[in-house]
Design brief:
Two copies of one chain form a homodimer. Chain A is of the alpha/beta class. The first copy, chain A, has helices spanning 18-21, 25-37, 40-47, 51-65, 81-108, 121-126, 128-138, 151-159, 206-211, 222-231, 247-255, 265-273, 303-313, and strands spanning 70-73, 76-79, 115-119, 144-148, 165-170, 177-191, 215-217, 242-244, 261-264, 278-280, 288-296. In chain A, strand 1 (70-73) and strand 2 form a beta hairpin. The structure holds a DNA duplex (30 and 30 nucleotides).
Chain lengths: 316, 316
DNA sequence: TGAGGGCATAAGCTGGGGTTATGGCCAGAG
DNA sequence: CTCTGGCCATAACCCCAGCTTATGCCCTCA
């Protein structure tokens, strides 16, 4: 009974968990179906539930949000203006859920999958789900299995014949592999908007960066290696302010203002867009690194691997 | 009992709804808390549930995904490698849900809110939720109400004193209002990857575009007005292939290959990134348009409105 | 050698979401 | 002008996912 808690307070406050204020995925999917099909009943049929179930689901969603979403008529249902807006927001949630699903499905994929992919953490986190969705759209019967690890682990899997295609970020191609650049990434220095670095007028110098304790991932992460290498000439990296186990944790700490950090552009894209973090320009250094697809030397990817490779080429 | 259905089939297939394959928001939030706090019990406490509830929730999520997510020990719980990956995917779902919540909350906002915003559909759909999240992070007690409509409606609200700040996309500032450019948008010609236009070697000419029936929104949308104006010198727009009520519907039709369309870059960003749609370059024309914040002439925004305005300035 | 933090198991309750059955409403056909 | 069919709402009932409280085991650390 966590209901009669802070209810009389103002409407703000994540005291009430997000899950209680946002309709669940089933409801959002249903709403999308209603928008597309123009009728509660048809949407219900498509989703495989009964018409009254759909009706009540939509109704309770409207109650929860406090807004009328669909205009019912004896000839069907149309979205209201608010409904159209809500539907588009819902669409983004559903798309994120689809990416989650595509990734999770690959993660549990059996070893006998038709396409076995090994990828670095960063690529697996931020790019692969999108590729997998595109792949599924074009070749729905391709079962994909995913194994995530660092560059060395990816190379090992490929050479052992336990993976068909690999993806790594880094400065060079691991020995024994051929590769193709499929994109570019760079490390960015970030800080919370309230951090002094976010208000600097002048660019940061590399020496300053090297001298400042940062929030970093533990040793062994590709990000950290690149950083180590780049700062080697400037006295090396200062002792970290915090050493955390996951990129997520690092971002959370940086967002909460614990200190500055250095992270992949891919990892902080969302945070920068939402201004939870601010990029701190660094003088003269780019911290760039290529994203590569890799495979055992001489064995050009064929079949599903070749197809997935094709999907990745056109992306940023 | 929709369980014993297509279970023996391959793992592909959205026969089973997404909602049954993706943990619900509560579970994802819980997982994020576990990742951040390093213990099931602490996460449970933060989320306001009992420790056994958290334990069972995480366990059933692991079962559902078929992957171990956390490594339990008597000293706490750490994410596994797969868990870290899943957590980051989960984070994106939760962030989309937060945007949904921020938007929905504003949509139902009472008229007595401290900040009343009127915005064009495109801006309300794609940019406002992010701003609202940022605003809430910095000024948690600002209650925002949102009203979405076309440029004329936004102007009307502002002039009637029923809104404090407006956002419009278009070529000029409505009469009676002052404004500031806060970003830029452009219309892009898009087609499904399988569409002939997606494989063209040569750029499309404006005349070709004008002569081709397109999938468009109904009359009255800002997008369509810009397009009408731009093609007026080339024989005007051909009769539409399809006229649909919402941007969502237009995109869905284009993705499914019904034909080419012209949409705001903001609206198709996701689809382009996921290669569900492909941009078709057009020779010599940019179809650009400014995004503007607007307010009644002479009444510079102050208070919360000024603050929100500040948040928008740094974004793309 | 307690004491305490952390996780798991067990037993029982609750409510949201599902189902079937039915009724009202409106449009267009006969 | 009535009939028929598509669409939505209401009612009554059912079930299971997820919550709670009450324990117990395990490990670490003072």
């Amino acid at each position: 009974m966590a209901r009669a808690n802070g209810e009389e307070r103002s409407d703000a406050g994540p005291v009430v968990p997000l899950a209680h204020r946002v309709p669940d995925l089933g409801a959002l999917e249903l709403l999308l179906a209603v928008a597309r099909l123009g009728s509660l009943g048809r949407a219900a049929r498509e989703r495989g539930i009964s018409q009254p179930a759909a009706s009540s689901r939509i109704r309770s969603m409207e109650q929860q949000l406090g807004v009328a979403l669909v205009e019912r008529s004896p000839r069907g249902s149309r979205l209201t203006d608010a409904g159209a807006l809500v539907t588009d927001w819902a669409r983004r949630v559903v798309e994120a859920a689809e990416a989650f699903d595509a990734g999770a499905q690959a993660l549990r994929g059996r070893r006998d999958s038709r396409l076995r992919v090994a990828a670095s953490m960063t690529i697996a986190e931020y790019l692969l789900p999108g590729w997998l969705i595109a792949l599924r759209a074009q070749r729905p019967d391709t079962a994909v299995s995913l194994l995530a690890g660092n560059s060395a682990a990816v190379a090992e899997r490929l050479l052992a014949g336990e993976a068909d295609l690999g993806f790594v970020e880094g400065l060079d191609v691991p020995a024994g592999l051929d590769g193709a650049v499929i994109g570019h990434d760079r490390l960015v220095v970030v800080a919370a908007p309230a951090h002094p670095w976010a208000r600097r007028r002048t660019e940061l110098t590399v020496a300053e960066l090297a001298a400042t304790p940062l929030i970093l991932r533990e040793h062994g992460s590709g990000t950290r290696q690149v950083l180590d290498a780049a700062l080697a000439g400037h006295g090396g990296l200062a002792a970290p302010l915090l050493e955390l186990a996951s990129t997520t944790a690092v971002k959370a700490a940086a967002v909460s203002g614990a200190g500055p950090s250095v992270l992949s552009e891919l990892a902080v894209g969302e945070e920068l867009a939402a201004r939870r973090l601010v990029e701190v320009p660094v003088l003269g250094t780019r911290f760039g690194r290529d994203l590569r697809a890799v495979w055992p030397s001489g064995q050009r990817p064929a079949g599903p691997a070749r197809h997935l490779l094709g999907l990745t080429r056109a992306l940023p």
